[in-house]
Amino acid sequence: MKQPQKLLIDWIAEVCSPEEVKWLEEEEKKLRSQGNERDLVLAFSKVPRKITQKDLNIGPEESREAQALKKNWHPENLDSQQAARILLLLSFASEKPEEFLGTVEKLLETADLNEQIAIYSALPLFPYPEKFLQLAYDGTRSNATSVFDTITLENPYPYEHFSEEAYNRLVLKAAFMERPFWKIVGIPDRANPVLADLLLDLVSERWSAGREVNPLVWKLITPALTEDRFREFKTRAKQMGAINEEAVALAYEQHKNPSTPNSQKWENLHKKWETQIHT
Amino acid sequence: MKFIDPHIHMTSRTTDDYSRMREAGIVAIIEPSFWLGQLRTNVGTFKDYYSSLIGWERFRASQFGIRHYCTIGLNSKEANNEELAEQVMDLLPRFALKEGVVGIGEIGFDEQTKAEEKYFRKQLDLAKELELPVQIHTPHRDKKKGTSLSMDICLEHGLDPEWVVIDHNNEETVKEVLDRGFWAGFTIYPNTKMGNERMVEVVKQYGSKNIFINSAADWGISDPLAVPKTAALMQKRGIDKNDIEKVTYGNALAAFGRSGQMKEEDWETEKEIDLNAKFSGNSVLRGEQIPTSQSNEEDILIK
Fold first, then answer.
1. Any chain A CB within 8 A of the CB of B276?
2. A210, B75, B81, B208: which has the fewest C-beta neighbours closer than 10 Å?
């Protein structure tokens, strides 16, 4: 068995019964040797009937192994059924990119929520991942947050393959939907002035409506700050509460001294925000 | 009390309905595949419809803390377009074994045509092959005969009555359905099907064995709270609590639970709804407002 299939099966074996693992190993072997599309479709659908849903025990050691195999791969949130589905997909990934793409497209056409999540989790591990760009873009258009999150958060795929324009749209949508956008791989390295402008507009619109935005967004707005904008938002922040005032001030500080990352200060601000929305 | 509505078409309903349903104690629902009020003209729209039942609608329900299941099938009206029906039949196996699909349904008769019968039979065979329960729609017109015929055909195809739900019963059909050992579904639907006072009388007469109720709420004038409302009425009219539980919860679970896709623990152990995981962060639950007749300002504000 190849990596990362090997890792996946080890993790599943830790939480599922030997019979369940045996079924999975047999399916994997079949798909790898003489599998056809029908075998994959059937096995993929059958996972919930064959594998008990359990959280995987992904500790620091397992995370390290995962990262060594694929940079920025985060299997921490996978459960046994998702892992099994990823394993099946990888075993079937043939040497013929177009054929495999066709198979995955077909699977997605009739996929339920959990199946969609499994497919988008597997995307960065596929061979020739660039072939799946259009599918990935479609995934980001999902209104189901569970699907959107899978392709967006802690997934190396957008970071590695999305154009800057698409990446910016993704971050903007995540912030708009109040998803934890700081978990998008590549934040803040891929921050750029265009994104900063987009996010500043978002803040402006929300504040006009008397709604708050997670203050971490200001970290990404830094490249778009000017003296005029700083003054404007400093004034407007007064209506929005102390955290927002701090965020604007911190963004300005960073804008002035880009070499100082202020990580701890942003972290503290985020903690304050979390406390505020949970009380 | 907690309730299951084993027949409701949520794609036609709003979020207001979802929040009121959850507040009234509905923990799980089953959405049968049906027609959309007008006939579809190509197979792609069927595919997208089935796909929405196991995708978006399931997600939408989960936001309100309601577990959404569905049954997959070709409804009787659209079985009359044979060319299309053939293509839909090819599609069904791709959906029928998905997670949370608890049966083949709703299938059966509308005008009791030959084509309807043909695809009814084919789908019964599919249900048998896939070991899934069947949810049968009984016709509005010539109902009594259509109901008998549906059961005859089920037996002819070797189906176990304990795996078959005969739906939309009334005082005329219930006795035969129960006598033959099928599940008897009753739809509490204003004006055209059962009213709930009549339902109370049915339970008084026949008890709670093999009987359960649903709303079949859809795009017509219907009531998504029909199940909890009827439970309340039954309580008022002195029906035993145990019987109410069976008719509004337990029996539906026993019937559709045979699929292996619907278990009490699905909602009993449901992870607490993450209020922050909502679309736009505007938790649909947090946004819940139930206006009253004496609306104070808080009730009429839209934030």
1. yes
2. A210
